[in-house]
Amino acid sequence: MSRVGLIGSSTLLGAELKTELGKRSDLWSDMKLLTFDQENLGKVSEIEGAATFVTAVSPETLDGLDLVVVAGERAVGRDLEAEIPGKAIVIVVSPDSCPKEGVRLVEGVNLADGKLPDSALGRRLLVSPQPAAIVLSLLLHSVRELGAVRADGHLLLPASSRGQDGLDELLAQSRGLLAFQPDLPREIFGRQLAFNLLPSIASSRAVLDDVTAALENAPNLSVKLSLASIFHGCALELHLAFEDDSGLDAVREALGASAFLNLADDSGLGPIDSAGRDDIQISCLAPDGSERQGGYWLSAFFDNLSRGGALNAVAIVEALSTLKTH
């Protein structure tokens, strides 16, 4: 078993990952809670019911660790391999863009049957991609044998994609509007998000790069990101185009064969129905209605902290643990 350091346990994503790793104590012998952020130093947390303190990242606290997981604390612009010395493997789990140097791994795509791809062997920096890239990779991988040539998506991100501060600001804006208050907090979103839809500042290019890094022979892909007045859970509207139309039943069968996708019978699903779930829910799969055959629309809903974050990271830890025992 591995000795693990978790950086960012005070973030929403880090807290989710701490919970999921706590359920898998077979993967680690010891876990330290660490931080780059001075404001989180000394905070009391718990691991498997035992109280523990959050300590600073330092050569002393990193000494002897096999894995260091960076979850939620912004990793962009940091030279993590230099800041985390030694031989510990670094896994970055980020709600936004990640270091370009890391190998992108998605469970069920290039991380299959608990085995690391050859591209990840011997590498110190591994990346669990941002939620949109994980879900798009899983969806496109499931229909790869049908010959998808193009995919275009519009992703609605929740306030939780901006952490606890995003949740707090959306709640404050909603309360303020219902109370007819003239001044609303705008520090996080810049404008009114409550009961509204805004362009996201997150980079769609970074999502596309993550997908093509994880998925071999990816179809031509474009994606638009928006921030929605949603507290938790993501919604993706995706159009798939196939060169040869195998028919609706074939697309449905391909999607349904994935252990990570659930084709729901309910056409009235929304982001709230995905909160806390481990799978990706798909509804409203139908031909696009155009004269040219081979085009289909679907709606997908997923939890950005579980399947879009913590669960994929745990799968990477498990694959490393399996590798270590062989």
Write a structural description.
α1 packs across α8, α4 packs across α6 and α4 packs across α8. The protein contains 8 helices and 16 strands. β1, α1 and β2 form a beta-alpha-beta unit. The strands form 3 sheets. A 7-stranded parallel β-sheet has the order 5-2-1-6-7-9-8. The chain has 326 residues and is α/β, with parallel strands linked by helices. The protein has 2 domains: 144 residues, Rossmann fold (3-Layer(aba) Sandwich), CATH 3.40.50; 171 residues, Dihydrodipicolinate Reductase, domain 2 (2-Layer Sandwich), CATH 3.30.360. The radius of gyration is 20 Å and the shape is globular.
Summarize the structure.
With 326 residues, this protein is of the alpha/beta class. The protein contains eight helices and 16 strands. The protein has two domains: 2-129 and 309-324, Rossmann fold (3-Layer(aba) Sandwich), CATH 3.40.50.720; 134-304, Dihydrodipicolinate Reductase, domain 2 (2-Layer Sandwich).
